Amino acid sequence: MGGDIAKLGENNNVSTEVLCKICGVLNCVVDDIVEFMPNSEDEVGDYIGEER
What we know:
With 52 residues, this protein is an all-alpha fold. 44% of the residues lie in helices and 0% in strands. The longest helix has 11 residues. The model has no long low-confidence stretch (mean pLDDT 80).
């Protein structure tokens, strides 16, 4: 998990499994540690029903 923490520090992607493990350690829920912010060039509609 240490490598995953480093990814977070470098603003890289991590899996939801990693987020759940972090929440388990911190005794919180994902909403407490995550905020969804689309890139400025992306539109929110691009994420609905579309594979990336």
